[in-house]
């Protein structure tokens, strides 16, 4: 695949993430902050998000797996994940966390278990898609090209 | 707003403190401030913010998260005002209910913005608090 095709593929792939609601405009904000002084800013922040989220999801699984669920422990974790997913533009993860928090407030254990599965599903989806996005970017840079700006046009 | 249009406030030598327990938010808020030329430090909770001021550090602007362990943003803001800290404090938090927002504002905030923070929201804070200088 030549450079122009790779750049077009990246643009189309990025657009699809927005069209599917996996990412929102906050991700564009992160891209705008990336510059020559910190050319890997987006991938650094997203990596932090992945590390943070892996830890939180593990803690949530443990907390919800207890005989007696302590919602005072569960809710702050969901709040954290909601915050960081919102900050990087991971819209569907954020939305799943909003639903999760509502059931935490109701102390509905069964619903919370379902919510955790939903959050995990959305998280692994965005993780997979972003990892693919970064690989496409790396291929373009390795070929001597520039990462094209995203033009959403909608 | 393009990168070229962003004001650089480095000449004004503004300083800011980011108070947030979330590493993702810390990273983004610090980058937002750096992009505008604002030197900044970061701490992980309200108690660390209070301790930083007790040790003699002072900032023009504090970006204060609400929900943090050990000491939350509302408690930290109250404490800083009791200590006589006159820095501008902007509360930044994800959607809080009206009661929580009111309590946070009444603790001594100068401004409030909902997360996620963006360049325009940060500029709005700076403008409202009379930091923003039109270039």
From TrEMBL, chain A:
Its main location: cytoplasm. The keyword Phosphoprotein applies. InterPro entries: AHP1-5/YPD1 (IPR045871), HPT_dom_sf (IPR036641), Sig_transdc_His_kin_Hpt_dom (IPR008207). The modification Phosphohistidine is found at residue 79. Signal peptide: none annotated. It is found in: Cytoplasm, Cytosol; Nucleus. Keywords: Cytokinin signaling pathway, Phosphoprotein, Two-component regulatory system. Residues 38-143 form the HPt domain. Histidine-containing phosphotransfer domain (HPt) contains an active histidine that mediates the phosphotransfer. Functions as a two-component phosphorelay mediators between cytokinin sensor histidine kinases and response regulators (B-type ARRs). Plays an important role in propagating cytokinin signal transduction. This is Histidine-containing phosphotransfer protein. It comes from Camelina sativa (False flax). The lineage of its organism: Eukaryota, Viridiplantae, Streptophyta, Embryophyta, Tracheophyta.
TrEMBL record, chain B:
The lineage of its organism: Eukaryota, Viridiplantae, Streptophyta, Embryophyta, Tracheophyta. SUPFAM superfamilies: CheY-like (SSF52172). The gene is LOC104706961. It comes from the Eukaryota. Keywords: Phosphoprotein. This is Two-component response regulator ARR22-like. PROSITE patterns: RESPONSE_REGULATORY. SMART domains: REC. The modification 4-aspartylphosphate is found at residue 65. Residues 15-130 form the Response regulatory domain.
